[in-house]
Write a structure and sequence with these properties.
Blueprint lengths: L7 E6 L6 H12 L2 E3 L2 E3 L5 H8 L7 E2 L3 E3 L5 H8 L17 E8 L19 E7 L4 H14 L4 E7 L6 H9 L3 E5 L7 H17 L1
Parallel strand pairs: 1-6, 1-7, 2-4, 2-6, 3-5, 7-8, 8-9
Helix pairs in contact: 1-2, 1-6, 4-5
């Protein structure tokens, strides 16, 4: 592939546990992209390990984290417990000649230290993909996330909706923001490589167009 055509996709969510890792797996599979999570809190199960299980493809590179923090808490607190400081100057993106999918931690304003948040990891040319869910209050959280991106002159390229069953949720967000929908993930008892393949096939055309 031509290096000029390569893109960075930053996956962020409207909050914690909204399905960012599953969404990242779908994007990785659809675009045959590399994967990287710069900061991981909690070492029992890493998101990189989950991606490797969901996308068992030897042609894809799963880059190691810069910070692997032991406690499953907000990165700033987990780092404090570990006695380390999350320094943005140490977080350099991996070299690759492929698309790169970058997964954040929690939502946009999750603290990394006393001054910086996940949003500070996003670069101007990144294609930001927001993952939304269908809990009560999710519309507000989705709109707030998009407003924050706008305030930083960052563009939300599209939204992936996970478990959204509330009538009118997607329609009102599209109408109020103009942000396109990439796709919707249904609720499943468990996510498997076959399901990731299924959604990757459905989302691929829309992902390639953003």
């Amino acid at each position: 592939m031509n290096l000029i055509s390569m893109n960075n996709y930053f996956i962020t969510g409207i909050g914690t546990d909204v399905g960012k890792t599953v969404a990242a797996a779908i994007v990785v599979k659809a675009l045959q992209a590399d994967y990287w999570k710069p900061v991981q809190s909690g070492l029992q199960e890493t998101d990189r390990g989950t991606l490797q299980e969901l996308v068992p493809d030897s042609s894809i590179t799963f880059h190691p984290e810069v910070y692997r923090l032991k406690t499953p808490m907000s990165p700033h607190k987990a780092a404090q417990i570990d006695g380390v400081y999350v320094d943005l100057e140490n977080i350099t993106r991996p070299d690759t000649h492929n698309h790169l999918v970058i997964e954040g931690a929690g939502g946009l304003l999750v603290p990394l230290n006393d001054n910086d948040t996940i949003a500070d990891l996003i670069q101007p040319l990144d294609k930001v993909i927001l993952v939304s869910s269908g809990y009560l209050g999710s519309i507000n959280h989705t709109l707030l996330s998009i407003e924050l991106l706008k305030s930083r002159k960052l563009t939300c390229a599209g939204i992936i909706y996970n478990h959204v069953t509330l009538d009118g949720t997607i329609e009102v967000i599209e109408k109020m923001t103009g942000v396109p929908t990439i796709g919707h993930i249904d609720r499943h008892d468990s996510m498997t490589p076959a399901l990731i393949d299924h959604y990757a096939t459905i989302f691929k055309e829309r992902l390639q167009s953003i």
